[in-house]
Design brief:
Largest sheet of chain B: 6 strands, mixed
CATH superfamily of the largest domain in chain B: P-loop containing nucleotide triphosphate hydrolases
Structural class of chain A: alpha+beta
Oligomer: heterodimer
Shape of chain A: globular
Largest sheet of chain A: 7 strands, antiparallel
Low-confidence stretches of chain A: 462-468
Distance between the termini of chain A: 83 Å
Mean pLDDT of chain B: 85
Number of helices of chain B: 12
Structural class of chain B: alpha/beta
Strand order of the largest sheet of chain B: 6-7-8-3-9-10
Number of helices of chain A: 18
Mean pLDDT of chain A: 82
């Protein structure tokens, strides 16, 4: 019974593939050429590692191959829209829904057709390229095998993500145009909004923007995640994240059936089948645009204008010329509500110090990590600036630089002091709101005083960075502008802790522009600025 | 046998979700289509013929009532759908196919597909196998779809405005092919058309639908026997509509000129003559109506196109 049903689904899928064979051919050409170039033109290069301690072999990927692989990704959107044509064309719906298949069989046949047209060729060509590359890398002892394999998985995840979003969107839309542009909007929003949101929260609580966290890659356009992940350099986590990404995409495709099965031909031609879907996409779009304005420090007033234009245009297009005063007012109402929701979100993030992320420390046990706090006072000297540095260890010789005697409790105590002054230095929520609509920025300030807390991780001997035995790696940092009157208070409080080493650096410029650097009152550098 | 029982369906205005205005496309329709007959769907534009046909082949679900084919609900049941082939009123969806491609496509879905029938019919109509249907004329596309429909060898073939675009000679040829094939295999043909004469000629049963409501459904001879045009002549005062209605006849249309009154009355000839016998007239003559006339008078009685009809007269 099940075998018979699969045979039927398979036959139907193959019939769909034959109908849209041009799309399949284009996909096969792009992927086939990409794989050929990847295998044939990928080469090995040798470079000398740090301090000339050993030679490393790198596999150099063909950029053209990667370009071709990437070009095959959006084909999934076209394939999904064509395969699910019964969702937006009454003529196709008449034909396909009258065929002897249940809605489940029809849906599965379409997914299988999509797999034949896009997913399977992507998997086969990219997978075989990655496999051959891995074997060659193993033979050559290349150091970047994992990075390359993760990169390939990343493109496959992007293909799956595109397909999943397109299938889901097509099931929620009843017109061809909406199926396409809502897929594009959704792909864009889902990809960048988590990163933007994360960055926004971090910025608002003084964190570092290049710490997106693994959660962002769970279901997003993997290329976006990959770019973010470059800073991390953790390929193992990329494998896990990308595999989860692929699995979520597959699940979304399968779960779209629950929308598909509810639809009969009556909803075909209706631009948007699911009002909930429409409202969610619109809200995501609005948040994306507003966040872009906030993060790029552009006056949000321009954002309001831009969003209302987009909002009304999309609503007018979707209403297919049936516009009344009532519907127009309803759109305006929804626009106002969404904008209000965004402003409330910003206010809440600001009031709660980035939803309490200001207190964040990257590890559960911070003992042994290296801490530096730098207080920069640009107004202290008339002809220069003064920096007060607090560190977890006073020994600045290369050998001991990696050592830190701070316990986890001490680390958290210092962090609490930092957070206390971070909170004190910030304006009210009303000021934050006012800053959004001006050219000044909510997380910047005109203060001359600046405080930065940074945490480094000591490298352990025998690790990949063995040559860095006496070095440390940046782990995390956060910073904020300190109000002038609070700067000295913070300095006193950090002094009172008693276990941090303190150094005062003064940089003074003489009339010839020559900088004289004094550390703890002693001249250490005298150079032309 | 197809049993349509108390079927109703509501369409919503195309907009966002369920908020739009609604209109009832079908309202409490009940008909039975016996096996082996040729059934005609008649109706005004937008009456609900295509909607009903789409429901009968599982494209639309019903809001109320049921549509059963051989005792089983048709919607979402592949086994039942294997017995149906639906040809809708458009052919654009086939544009990318060649006739041969279309044959392969449907062969994948219908296990009963017959290459022998396909070849035989295509030989008769001489359509190119490897030319895209988008390059076919409208009539050729229709022929192609009819060939496919017949080759699927289903028990029920539903044709929605299937003869549109065919020239008179080809219309006749295609009709003959369909009828021959369907009769040979004792299959049921359901045809919708605005061309009442065509339904009259082709079908043995028909139904008339208007604004989603069923006006009548029966054998064509029975339908024709149920409507008559009556001419009454009375010299002094012509027979008025009120007078006719006092003898308990259902007058669908009435006109008079001088001493001659003319009315379209529902009922059999015997029944009408019996009822009218109480009226004192010089002449009472009952004339049978064609299906087309019945169609027009039925719809006119419901105010459909009445302005145009009266102007014509």
């Amino acid at each position: 019974m099940a075998a018979g049903s699969f045979q039927k689904i398979n036959k139907a899928a193959l019939a769909e593939v034959r109908t849209h064979k041009k799309v399949s051919i284009i996909t096969y050409i792009l992927l086939g050429l990409g794989a050929l170039l990847y295998i044939c033109t990928g080469s090995f290069s040798t470079y000398t590692e740090y301090n000339g301690q050993f030679d490393a072999v790198n596999f150099e990927r063909s950029p053209m191959a990667m370009l071709l692989f990437c070009a095959s990704v959006p084909i999934g959107l076209i394939a999904a829209v064509l395969v699910f044509r019964d969702m937006n064309s009454i003529q196709h719906c008449d034909v396909q829904h009258s065929l002897p298949m249940s809605s489940l069989q029809r849906f599965m046949s379409k997914l299988l057709a999509l797999a034949y047209m896009h997913i399977i060729p992507s998997f086969v060509f990219m997978g075989s390229s990655a496999l051959i590359m891995t074997l060659r890398c193993m033979a050559e002892n290349a150091v970047n095998t994992k990075e390359n394999a993760a990169g390939m998985l990343c493109i496959f995840a992007a293909a799956m993500f595109t397909d999943a979003v397109a299938v889901f969107t097509v099931c929620c839309c009843g017109a061809l145009a909406e199926s396409i542009y809502f897929s594009v909007i959704l792909v864009g929003c889902l990809s960048i909004i988590p990163t933007m949101m994360w960055n926004f929260i971090w910025e608002i609580c003084g964190g570092n923007v290049f710490d997106p966290g693994k959660i962002l890659g769970l279901w997003t356009y993997s290329v976006v995640y990959a770019v973010e992940n470059i800073c991390d350099g953790s390929t193992v986590s990329s494998f896990t994240i990308m595999t989860i990404n692929v699995l979520i995409s597959a699940a979304v495709m399968l779960l779209s059936y629950f929308i598909y099965r509810k639809r009969d031909a009556r909803s075909v031609g209706t631009p948007i089948y699911s009002r909930l879907f429409f409202e969610i996409v619109m809200a995501l779009g609005v948040f994306t645009v507003y966040l872009a304005f906030v993060l790029t420090e552009i006056n949000l007033s321009y954002g309001l204008i831009m969003v209302i234009v987009i909002y009304l245009v999309i609503n007018i297009v979707i209403s297919r010329a049936k516009i009344g005063v009532k519907s127009f007012m309803a759109w305006l109402g929804k626009y106002v509500l969404t904008t209000a929701a965004f402003l409330i979100f910003v206010a809440a993030a600001y009031a709660t110090d980035g939803f309490s992320t200001a207190k964040y420390l990257p590890k559960t046990d911070m003992s042994g990590y290296i801490l530096d706090i730098s207080l920069e006072d640009n107004g202290y000297l008339e002809n220069g600036y003064r920096t007060v540095d607090y560190s977890s260890n006073d020994d600045t010789s290369d050998k001991n630089m990696v050592r830190s005697d701070l316990t986890d409790e001490q680390f958290r105590e210092i962090n609490d002091v930092y957070v206390k002054y971070f909170k004190k230095s910030r304006g009210s929520v009303a000021e934050c709101m006012s800053d959004l609509f001006s050219d000044s920025h909510i997380y910047n300030s005109n203060s001359n005083n600046y405080c930065m807390l940074s945490i480094d991780e000591p490298y352990k001997a025998g690790s990949y960075h063995a040559d860095h035995e006496h070095s440390r790696a940046w782990l995390y940092n956060k910073s904020f502008y300190v109000k002038e009157e609070l700067g000295s208070e913070l300095e006193k409080e950090l002094d009172s802790l008693g276990y941090l080493d303190k150094h005062i650096t003064e940089t003074r410029y003489d009339q010839n522009g020559i900088a004289c650097v004094y550390v703890d009152g002693e001249l250490v550098d005298n150079s032309d600025y | 046998m197809i049993e349509i029982e108390k079927v109703s369906m509501v369409f919503r205005q195309k907009g966002l979700g369920k908020g739009g205005t609604e209109f009832k496309a079908l309202d409490d329709i009940s008909i039975t289509i016996p096996d082996g007959c040729i059934y005609g769907f008649l109706g005004s534009n937008g009456a609900g013929k295509s909607t009903l046909m789409r429901m009968m082949c599982g494209v639309y679900n019903t809001d109320e009532g049921s549509i059963k084919i051989d005792g089983k609900e048709v919607y979402n049941d592949p086994e039942v759908k294997e017995k149906i082939f639906f040809v809708n009123d458009e052919t654009v969806q086939y544009g990318a196919f060649t006739l041969d491609g279309l044959r392969k496509y449907y062969k994948a879905y219908y296990p009963t597909f017959s290459d022998e029938v396909f070849d035989r019919l295509n030989k008769k109509l001489s359509l190119p196998l490897n030319k895209r249907l988008s390059e076919f004329s409208k009539g050729m596309k229709r022929q192609a779809v009819v060939i496919i429909g017949l080759s699927c060898m289903t028990q029920y073939l539903m044709l929605d405005e299937a003869f549109d675009g065919l020239d008179p000679a080809m219309r006749k040829l295609v009709k003959n092919i369909i009828v021959d094939e369907m009769i040979d295999r004792e299959a049921t043909l359901i045809v919708s058309s605005h061309n009442v004469a065509e339904i009259n000629e082709l079908c043995d049963r028909a139904m008339l639908i208007h604004k989603g409501k069923l006006l009548f459904a029966d054998e064509i001879d029975e339908i024709k026997g149920g409507f008559h045009k009556v001419q009454l002549v009375r010299k002094d005062v012509p027979v008025g509509r009120d007078e006719l209605e006092t003898v308990d006849v259902e007058v669908m249309q009435y006109s008079s000129m001088g001493s001659v009154s003319q009315a379209v009355i529902k009922g059999t000839e015997e029944e009408i003559m019996r009822k009218l016998s109480v009226l004192k007239t010089e002449v009472t003559e009952v004339i049978p109506l064609t299906l087309e006339e019945i169609f027009i008078y039925e719809l006119e009685a419901r105010g459909y196109g009445s302005g145009i009809i009266s102007e014509d007269k």
